[in-house]
Amino acid sequence: MEEKIRVLVAKPGLDGHDRGARVVAAALKDAGMEVIYTGLHQTPEAVVEAAIQEDVDVVGLSILSGAHMTLVPRVQELLREAGAGDVAVFAGGIIPDADAETLKAGGVSAIFGPGTDTSEIVAAIHAAMAARPAAPES
Amino acid sequence: MPKVTSDPDRLAAFRKKAAAGARDFDFTTVSGQPVELFYDPSSVADLDHDRDLGYPGEFPFTRGIHPNMYRGRLWTMRQFAGFGTARETNQRFRFLLEQGQTGLSTAFDMPTIMGYDSDHARSLGEVGRMGVAIDSLADMERLFEAIPLDKVSTSMTINAPAAVLLAFYIATAEKQGVGADRISGTTQNDILKEYQAQKSWIFPPEPSVRLIVDMMEFCSEHVPRWNTISISGYHIREAGSTALQELAFTLANGFAYVEAGIERGLDVDAFAPRLSFFFNSHLDFFEEIAKYRAARRIWARRLRDRYGAKDPRSWLLRFHTQTAGVSLTAQQPENNIVRTAYQALAAILGGTQSLHTNSMDEALDLPTEKAVTIALRTQQIAAYETGVASVIDPLGGSYFVEALTDAMEAGAERYFAEIDERGGVLPCIDQGFFQKEIGRAAYAYQKAVEKGAKVVVGVNRYVHEGEEPEIPLLGQDPALEREQAERTRRVRAERDNDAADRALALLREKARTGENLMPHILDAARKYATEGEIIQVFREEFGEYHDPAYVL
To answer: Which of A62, B180, B219, B547 is the most buried (most CB within 10 A)?
Structure first.
């Protein structure tokens, strides 16, 4: 049987807007993924610790406070330091286009703004998983 | 009430004829409530004019809280604003006042909302982003520079640390030579909806409610023109609730505050007149109007009949309205001007006391000066050009609106009964009851949009092919964060540190007693203790709250 894709949906930073994060979490679960939700007000350190502990394939960061240019690169940096640089990172929220381009250039797989269809997010995760180099035999 | 037709066969025949040939469309409200094709006197057969409607300004206030409504005084046009440091927001405030705005409304940044100073590690990247950064009295003084606090009323969207921000405001007024008895405004200060929907909490519910009751008590004595709590449905709706859930949960929270005040031993008429409400205005025009009308009627009945309030001012549900941020689209953003105008109209026809109209660019960034001006002009056009402010409750007596108002009231009563059965509002928060109800409604709506059952123009219908039109965005200078953090470090370096430390130590001591904390918070504020320092005392004494993290 194919293993389920494991996704951590995380709310780093201080804003409490979790409508999007919860809707996306429910949609990914309905799409057959294993979804872990961090809860609110997480530090980047706590997000990465959860990602490692849960051995996830994907981290989805939801940020609506405008702090994305600080928090997203910080999560990526901590993932790399923890040897989990292969975890695909997605971001969603109120993220202006110019910032989205910078984040994507920095290795974020995709950025989803308001009005995104959840099926688009599901498809993007599948695409990122398919593009991933096969895991070495162990 | 008009008589129902004396010929029931004729009505049945009409209904059959009219129901045929409907186009393929979801005719439920944006909340998913079915509506009839047509309403007639039989839809409101039980309505009793004097009992259920009354005259405007009279119990149960279904038609409005004033006998002359907008002919006496228009609603307050109050645009929510705040970004960057106190200096930037002070400029925006003065701009809005020059444009004819009649009240101020302050948006704080996330560190201020969560009780962290701008130089705290957790504030990194967040300072001045979602609102203005206020760390101490020094920032508040700058925020209201050249704005006389005895002349404007100021609303502050602040909850967990509301007591601290009110203390900064009182101390700022004192510095302007304005006594606390002469300032007016509102602190949102509605912590219950934070656990349910907005999720900006710091402490657990019990000590949070204690701080609120402390403020109610303090203000009824010293700040008589202050609205201590703005009981807010806005965020419940933004988090995804239906109109009915917004109405029911908000009023249930209101009842909980009243009960907390009564438990403290306060006379209900001493504080209830200072409670105010804050509702959303979403896209479903008539559903929103019915919601406001039902809210007034339910509140008046409960306050008089259950809580024994005798002062008619305690019965009045006064409310602010903000148009629905969540209805704004990032796609074809100019369309948001039109959405906002319809929503503003619903709020006005529903009898709001003040109104914020969203700017077209808010699904993308904080609003530019141009966008916020159009939003304000939308209100001014409604007020002065359309005639809608000339007649009170112009939809009163509409079979449809009256039937919908009754249905809203009945639905809310069912929710109140369920909340009571579950032990009340605080136990329901512990059980995640509100959170799950809201989350399920949000997900159901998202699925309806994705199936195309609910149309969102520009998103799932009439999508723009090719490039989106560009609108200018506000943006923010990243240097502001460093500048603000530096300023707060300077405040700490330059103040009388012994005095600040003594005030904080006394505050800690009092936090362990049942004594009202407000005078001690005010004292610490006057000594330039920072928000982060004051909140840290409470974090240590009261503990912190963590949310139940579940996936629907």
So the answer is: A62
